[in-house]
Amino acid sequence: MEPEATSMDWERLLSKQRLGRPDEEGSLGFRTDFQRDFDRIVFSSAFRRLQDKTQVFPLAESDYVRTRLTHSLEVSCVGRSLGTRVGEAITRREGYTEVAPGDIGAIVAAACLAHDIGNPPFGHAGEDAIRHWVRTSPVARRALDELSPPQRAEFEHFEGNAQGFRVVTRLQNPDNRGGLQLTYATLGAALKYPCPAHAIDPGYGISRKKYGYFVAEADLFRAVAQTNGLLKQAPRTYCRHPLAFVMEAADNIAYLIVDFEDAFRLGILEYRTVHDHFRALLRGKDQGTVERRLARLRDDKERVEYLRARAINELVEASARAFMDHEAEIMTGRFERELTDTLPFSEALRAIAGVSQERIYDHLEVQGVCAAGYSVIGGLLDLFHEAVHDTAVALEEGKQAPPRSRTVTNLVPEQFLYQYDPDSGRRYRVTDPYLLLLNLTDFIAGMTDGYAVSLYKKLTGMALPHHG
Hints:
There is one protein chain. 58% of the residues lie in helices and 3% in strands. The strands form two sheets. The protein has a two-stranded antiparallel ribbon with strand order 1-2. A two-stranded antiparallel ribbon has the order 3-4. Among the domains are: 10-124 and 159-243, Hypothetical protein af1432, CATH 1.10.3210; 244-362, putative deoxyguanosinetriphosphate triphosphohydrolase like domain (putative deoxyguanosinetriphosphate triphosphohydrolase fold, Orthogonal Bundle), CATH 1.10.3410. The chain is built from 21 helices and four strands. The radius of gyration is 23 Å and the shape is globular.
């Protein structure tokens, strides 16, 4: 028996093999395997729905403000640049001839593109709304009583990251084993939290602050971890793929900087505040050059855009250096911090995060709509779980469910009610309590903000079609 590895290997970490498709035909000349990952995510319905999902400002009327879709695209751009910079150092040192720096950039870009694909309506408030429903709803209490402790933990700590892994490996193209059948390298880079819900341990470090997969996808997760050669840390728990740190840094850079820009455009932050905080990230640059460029621009909007671009570039370069500085610890699974926390100007980033929390995320308009999200998501979960549960029990007992339950259940798309067996071509109504709740969560989490609000209003009688 071979001894367990003590360090990861870049050749395995950059695996082009596809989940669920070991006989993949390989690259198509004009597109690399990792570029194909990017394209598969872009063309997925789950990615398109991000255009009407909250980034920071829910249901924003301004067409300038970022949604989850524009945020994900911007993160992927930052990730491509950052990944390519890291790739230059790695491929040069390793002497790779078949792996280019741009391949590593493409892996990170694809992982960034998928990083929010599992988020429910109303952004992070939507995640907490599901957890709140689990804690407070009698309907949820009955549902969780039928689950095992590891299964209950998944809903008590509901996590968009785990939902995202489920989306790309199972829910998109559900008739394929492996869903979108992305490469193992891209899936590994997208796994920020390579542990199950019952193994969450913030005291351990950043990789176990949350969880990254559901029990239902345990076999798919294990395939990703083992093929990439991730180091095992505990039962069903592994260290991060090194490029997950790069993906995380790209996300941090994008939201810390562009949330400031959005807040300025909405009049929440004044120009001087944005200027001073962005300039703090450029202290090592030629002060005169920056100030002369700012003076030539016609208005504060363009000045903010210029400073935003310069700040992002500076953070990308610094994060690439930080990754290489800490690579030895990362490759042995001993690094448990965010890359952006190790940067020379991490204090300036923390100042930006502090202002963002106080003046943007706690803004009355943001909090007001997020609060409404608790009612919408909790209300939908109550209505649909009760109905779907009643009809499933009635089916098992050979009885007829109450008319209200049948009517509400008819509003749930069949893909969330039935399990399809591709071998027999038959489909079966889902009655297992865990899968029933998981499928219903898939339905709710996949909704856009607008659809969730519209459906809730219809089901509660606040908005009905009227002719006449």
